[in-house]
Amino acid sequence: MKTILKFLPLLFVAPFVTSCSSDDDTPAPVNEEEVITTLTATFVPVGGGTSVVLKTQDLDGDGPNAPVITVSGPFASNTTYNGSVEFLNELDSPAEDITEEVQEEGDEHQIFYATTNDLGTFSYNDSDADGNPIGVEFTFQTVETSTTLDGALTITLRHEPNKDATGVSDGDIANAGGETDIQTSFNISVE
Amino acid sequence: MKHIFITAIASLLGLLVNGQNCNIIFSGKIVDFHNGEPIIDATVHVESLDIYTTTDLDGKFILKNLCKGPLKVTFSHLSCETKTIEINLTENLERTIYLEHHVEELETIVVKGAEVKKKTTAAQETIIKTDVIDDYSSASLGDVIKQVSGVTSITTGSKIVKPVINGLHSSRVLVVNNNVRMEDQDWGIEHAPNIDVNAADNISVIKGAGTLAYGGDAIGGVVILEPKHPHLVDSLFGKTITGFQSNGLGYNISSSLHKTFESGWYANGVLGYKQNGDLKAPDYYLNNTGSKSFSASLQGGFKSFEKGFEVYLSHIDNEIGILSASHIGNTEDLVNAINSNEPYVNEDFSYSIKAPKQDVNHTLLKATGFKRFKSFGKVNFQYDYQNNQRFEYDKRVGSDKNKPAVDLNLQTHSLRVDTKIDNLEGYIMDFGVSGRFQDNFANPDTGVRRLIPDYQKLDFGIYGIVKSYFSDKLSGDLGVRYDYNHIDAKKYYKTSRWEERGYDEDFSDIVIDDLGTQLLTNPKFSFHNISVSTGLLYNHNEKNELSFNYSLSSRPPNPSELFSDGLHHSAARIELGDLRINKEISNRLGLSYRLNTKRIVMNLETYFNHINDFIYIKPTGTEATIRGTFPVWEYFQTNAILTGIDASFDVLLSNNWNFNNKSSYVYGQDTENDLPVIDMPSFRLSNTLSYSKANWKDLNVALNHEFVAKQNRYPDYNFETYIASSDSYVLVDISTPPAAYNLFNLSADATFDISNKMSLNVMAAVENIFDTSYREYLNRLRYFADDTGRNITVQLKFNY
Q: Is the Cβ pair B447, A33 closer than 8 Å?
């Protein structure tokens, strides 16, 4: 009993000694990984013509600044465009290309394209290991019009969508579920 | 008779041997250890001679005509611990003998089934005993204390359960485990207390800051868990509880063993494990709602009346899956989830736990010692160390897939000295000081910006409580406490957020490094808090009891309220703390009436809680990001009142039939903005009809009906958002509470004696008998899926 009492104070002191070592350090900054800051969609017309580039860039992530959205110019009427998207993390230098990760884990990702005002139709040009589309490569066929048509083109990257649900592999997002990693609407026009 | 005959012979022989010197006098006085007062009519027994005497009005005794030689004398008195001394008489001897004359301290020789003492005199306190806790062996602390009228829970699914006392929770409810104030990052709703209820012998639930011994910031209440008190007899006993739950194919096992020695040494151990797979709502599986929990505790020490010490070690490791469908990307996903009747993820049953999940472990080490001083009282010294490690895993991609998104380590060291003075006529005084040092480390290796920054916190507290018995009918207490808190944090802010918050104007002096897009800052805060708690208890007669209490308590803002800044995935919202937030101050009045007759026991508890600068979170707009838009929720302060009534009513219908009714209602109002307070529990009612028959193997059967009303008083924070896929604006209904619901539950148990030292209790229960689909307002996952459906439980309890 008495010897135990002698050692009791040691018990009190020991944790203090072990835990004080990490104090007073300046915490290291966190450089965010796997963050997508920039989406660039490039549309190259089949048979030549002016390419269209849609870009959204949000360098402060979930910070208060809204993303900067740019559209290089109008789409041409009744034209087939070969499209591709690129995802970058520009917080890293050099910028990290996240597109590769999306393709590597193709079965867990899908990119959806949609327009308002029936400006055109999309079809997928790539597939994951299960034969379902990913959407990094795609085709956009614009409508035939004699006047200028305005509308919104929305690009959505979903993580873990249900690709087997009705319409999903044809590009209909309605039943896809999953979690949105990127979603941006671009104001475009077809003339 | 035989015994007396032998002793008579022996003493005769003794007389013969020591025949010469048999005129020695042994005299003395027997006094109360606590207050030094004489003990009248105590028995003095010389065992070897079998002669008796008693003390007089001055506590004095005298034994004449003793012979030289060794003597064994015992001193005893009603409600005192018997004391035996051995002396070797050579000449006349005078001695003062201290006996521990205190009914209150009978805890040292407690017998099984003894009444558990309340911690407060007049506060609204309810004690939950072992038998009830055992029934909830597979459940969490939040589920157990929901038995108390006025206590509900706020949950994230059904495994992350936080107690809500009279509408308040998280940092406003203190949880005290074996005299240690739990420091387990209690600020978040999805941060449940890290406690295994199986280690508790009893749980006290105190509404409001009724006891100031553990802190002055318990605006909601205090939950105190106590392990078994050691019985100072030679014994070895234990208990094993094992059960199976049909919903989620869960199982649990918990074993405890207690070894005590008459000499005062004791050791207790508790070991438990439980696991369940995906739970099931009536119409679908709730994917990824499996959980695992391992817990162990060890306690050992020595205890006598005068002194004792104890070392206590406990560890708990919880891994809890969070409903897959609740992890969403942006406001559009939230709208889809709210408007869909079923979760998007609908897979088969599985035990596997994937991201999103949390893995939290908590280790507690405590060493304590006490000493009693004559004519004074008891001094207790305690040191405790807590290590809380929290990992949260999100759905991530690429090489970060298995990396936690949150990795927080909170270490706490506390020292406290408490003194109880009980030698004073008519009152008892408790006072103490405590100091606490806390270090929070947010690991940057997560690759995700920290939600909670690195910080160090220093607390100092001093308190005094006086309990007084004015008369047989009237007693009261008064406590005062002062607390000092100091937080020293190092936090990175995004420069854009720093400017948007206006911190560049108000806090430019705390920036210590500028990294371009990020700023390293060093916020420091100090708080001085005074708290008061007082109450009066009036026992009109055996049947009627009335009590009144008042408490003033202050709570400094927690790290989440000060520092939050970022996206909260499960809620699809950006949460922003505010460095300008100050402490909140509560003035709470409580009035209780208790009727206790042979047939009826009724408890009515009413309260009025006015909270100045009440800290709460509300949406203020939306922010656009590359992921889409998110509502922004910011912490604000306002003035609020919370008032309500908790009732419980027991009627003994006949010898075997009993009816119990419990109900509670709380009215919460933001008086500054004239709006209801968000997340207030709705009116609820529970009726139980039970039948018990002691001579039929102690059979108990209970049928329970639970009604939970729709919460009609809620602030409307709904907003509209643009949905790109349908090119339209839709309402995001995050406010409307779900509909009222009724649940029916049935349970039965019986006890079988296996031998005279072993018994087996068998319990079977059905929860949600009719497999009713429902959603609860205070379940954060109510947007995504129904609550759990029918569950059948079978549980065996061995006592040995």
A: yes
State how far the Cα of A182 lies from the Cα of A164, in Å rounded to an integer: 21
* Minimum Cα–Cα distance from B328: chain A residue: A179
B344, B626, B727: residue with CB nearest A177: B344
Of B396, B448, B513, the CB nearest to A30: B448
Q: Which residues of B touch A150 (CB under 8 A)?
A: none
Backbone angles phi, psi at B172, to 5 degrees: -90, -5
Contact A62 B367 (CB under 8 A): no
Q: In what order do the strands lie in the sheet with B60-66?
A: B60-66, B24-32, B93-99
Round to the nearest angstrom and report the end-to-end CA distance of chain B.
37
Tell me the C-alpha distance between B538 and B225, whole Å. Answer: 27
Preceding peptide of B356 cis, ω within 30°: yes
| Contact call for residues B645 and B685 (beta carbons, < 8 A) | no
Q: Which residue has the tokens 């639930």?
A: B205
C-beta separation of B654 from B622 below 8 A? no
The per-type count for chain A, helices as H runs and strands as E runs, is 2, 10
Average pLDDT over all residues of chain B: 89
Q: Residues 565..594 of B with a Cβ closer than 8 Å to A: which?
A: 566-567, 574
Radius of gyration of chain A, Cα coordinates, nearest whole angstrom: 25
Q: What is the pLDDT of residue B719?
A: 87
The amino acid that residue B609 corresponds to is N
Q: Is the dihedral of CA B730, B736, B742, B747 positive or negative?
A: positive
- Stated as kind and residue range, the H or E segment containing A159 is strand A149-159
Nearest to A125 by CA among A168, A174, A82, A182: A82
B125, B547 Cβ separation under 8 angstroms: no
Tell me if chain A has a CB within 8 Å of the CB of B210.
Answer: no
DSSP letters spanning A23-78: TTPPPPPP---S---EEEEEEEETTS---EEEEEE-TTTTSSSPPEEEE-SPBPTT
**Minimal CA separation from A116 to chain B, in Å:** 7
Cβ-contact B99, B55 below 8 angstroms = no
Query: Residue A22: what pLDDT?
Result: 43
Mind listing the domains of chain B with CATH numbers? Answer: 2-101 (2.60.40.1120), 134-355+410-799 (2.40.170.20)
Size of interface A-B (CB pairs under 8 A): 163
Neighbours of B493 (CB within 10 A): 25
Taking the CA atoms of A19, A21, A25 and A27 in sequence, report the sign of the dihedral they define. Answer: negative
The verdict on a CB contact (< 8 Å) between A66 and B624 is: yes
Q: Which residue has the higher pLDDT, B667 or A91?
A: B667
- Give me the interface pTM, i.e. the ipTM: 0.79
pLDDT at B115: 55
What is the mean pLDDT for each group of 10 consecutive residues in chain A (191 residues)? 47 45 70 84 93 93 89 94 94 87 92 92 94 95 93 92 91 87 92 90
Q: Rounded distance, CA B533 to CA B762, Å?
A: 43
Which stretch of DSSP H or E encloses residue B561?
helix B559-563
pLDDT at B14 over 50: no
Can you give the pLDDT at residue B337?
84
Delineate the domains of chain A, giving CATH numbers in brackets.
34-190 (2.60.40)
Helix, strand, coil percentages, rounded to 5, for chain A:
15, 40, 45
**How far are the Cα atoms of A79, B190, B199, B415, B602 from residue B203, in angstroms, in the given order?**
74, 22, 11, 23, 21
What pTM was estimated for this model as a whole?
0.85
Chain A CA closest to residue B324: A178
Burial code of B442-454, b = ≥16 C-beta within 10 A, e = fewer?
bbbebbbbbbbbb
Q: Could you tell me if B223 and B204 are in contact, meaning their C-beta atoms sit under 8 angstroms apart?
A: yes
